[in-house]
Structures are given as structure tokens and as C-alpha cells.
Amino acid sequence: MECNRCDAEAVMHAAYSGAHLCETHFRESVEKRVRRRVRRDDLVPREASPENPRTWVIGLSGGKDSVVLTKILHETFAEDPRIELVGLTIHEGIAGYRDESLDACVDLTADLGIRHEVVSYEEEFGVRMDEVVEDDPENMAACAYCGVFRRDVLSRYAEELDADLLLTGHNLDDEAQTALMNVLEGDVSQIAKHFDASLGPLSEREEQAEFVPRAKPLRDVPEKEVALYAHLRELPAHIAECPHSSEAYRGEIQQLLYGLEENHPGTRHSILSGYEELASIVAERYRDDGDGADLRECVECGSTTTRERCRKCSLLEALA
């Protein structure tokens, strides 16, 4: 099959758009969507300048998503003195798995010439995920512990690195799954929080955020296209499943969306578009009614939380 835009052989077919694209035009398509999202979300504020640059911290795991995001952002802003990129890698203490992905992060940042910071759960909390899984005093899935610890480290180090923006490599599939899960669970507060944290113009989020604003420039690109992009560009991505991954519910949602997308191309885009509109309405209602949770400082670590002791400190106490 030939590319729709030239006579070259197509390397992919996007059923949701009907497009057949060759390698060159496919790469351009992915890059265009990422850069368009950067513009739509106003990630580069007008006041940014060489004299007033912005620091963007990227949560760089070494997986295909964060590696592709880092590569595209670097090529976009390498010659732009208004933006400094910093890669932040978290080692959870998963033998083999994270060691290999860390190597990918080191190779990528060295090749691109960007600053790279590495932190670990062991240094920060005195725990390793391999040991947490064996102990598991709360009888939870490993992802529940890891998610809490990861969010804490990302938030704290984004602040320590004086970041203006924290970027993560969530793709279209990730976002559609989260949206569907929140709706099916009836988690209205999470829908509002999701909007305030990562959707809408950056200027509005900066005024409201208790944390460093977050952005997901890859969220318009399907997961398989991210993987293909990484392959075609021969990026040092570590593509493997975490050995402790056990999010059974998300896995069911993932399989459901696979089926829906195959039978009804464009389902993921429709879900995300509708969810963003819904999240905007819900978040606005929360602000107007004053229904948002009261934030306070954790009595143990000082982190912002809605409880007396934050979830991270509660989990660490249980593990201890």
C-alpha cells in the first residue's frame, strides 16, 4: 500500500483517520501532533524569553513513551533558549527491569546533551519495590504503592529543580483508559482533579495549582504509533512489562478499548475529547461551589495533602 502523501511504501495505517503513511510522513504526523498539543495548551508562556527561561522536567522512565516525548521536545526546543529540558528518572528498586530502562535513559540524555537526574525509592524512602511486593502489609497491588511513591518523588523533585512544568509521557491509550475508569467508578472528584492537574491552558493551571503544573504532550498519539515511532527512529527505549504490574481493572479496560477501537475506529479520541469537556465542567462546578477538598500539610513530611498524614507516609509507616 502506498502512502497517501507520496509514492513511498506505507509503514502504517491509521484506521481512525483512514491514512496510510510512509516512514517520513508518519514521523512528521507524530511530531506535528505533539507540537500542536504544546501550542494548544499554551505550554510556552508569552513572557518566556532567553532572559526569563522556563525549566521543563520530563518524567523519563526509559520506556517508549517518555523516550519519544523527550526526543521530540529536544528537537523542537534544542535551539530555543527559552526552554531547558531536564530528564528525571526514578529507580523503584526493581532488579533487572529498571536497571535496563535506566541504561536507556542514560544513553538518550547523553546523546541529546540534556541534564539528567536519577533518584531512587531506596534513597528517598528506604524501600525497594521488590521488597515491598514481598511484604505488602496493606494487601494492595504493587502499582498502588508505586504510584503513591512515584507521584511524591516527581512532585518534590520538580519543585527542587525549580521546574515551571512537569511533563509525562502518557499517550492516547493511557488517557482514554483513565477517563473510562474514572467515569465507570463514578469518581467525580478525580475527574475534577485530573482537569486541574493536566488539562486546559497552562496560565489557568498556574494560578490554581498547589503543585508544579503538569502536561502530557503525547496524549493525542495512540500507543502503537508511539512504539512504531521509537522503532523507526531507533531510539534506546526499554520496551518491557514491569514484573510487578498487576492492575487487573486497568487491564480489563485496556482490552475493552482495544475491541471498541477495532470495531469503531476513533473511539479513544472520542472518549478523550468528551472527557476533557466533562472534566472542565466538573472542575468549574467544584471551584464555584467550594466543594474542593481542603489542603493541608502532612504532619510527617510537610507534603500537601487532604489528610492529617499523607498517603505516602501512611504506607511507609505500614512498611516499617
In short:
With 320 residues, the protein is of the alpha/beta class.
Description of the structure:
There is one protein chain. With 320 residues, the chain is an alpha/beta fold. It has one domain: Rossmann fold (3-Layer(aba) Sandwich). 52% of the residues lie in helices and 11% in strands. The chain has a five-stranded parallel sheet with strand order 5-4-3-6-7, sandwiched between helices. Helix 3 links the parallel strand 4 and strand 5. The N and C termini lie far apart (59 Å). The relative contact order is 0.14.
What are the defining features of this structure?
9 strands; 52% helix; two-stranded antiparallel ribbon; five-stranded parallel β-sheet
Structural class: alpha/beta
In percent, how helical is the residue content? 40-55%
Q: Low-confidence parts lasting 5 or more residues at pLDDT below 50?
A: none
CATH domain fold name: Rossmann fold
Q: Please give the count of helices.
A: 13
The CATH class turns out to be Alpha Beta
Shape: globular
- Main β-sheet, in a few words? 5 strands, parallel
How many domain units?
1
- First-last Cα distance: 59 Å
Radius of gyration: 20 Å
Q: From the 3D coordinates, which CATH architecture would you assign?
A: 3-Layer(aba) Sandwich
Strand-residue fraction? 5-15%
The helix-strand sequence is: EEHEHEHEHHHEHHHEHHHEEH
Mean pLDDT across all amino acids: 89
CATH superfamily: HUPs
Strand elements, count: 9
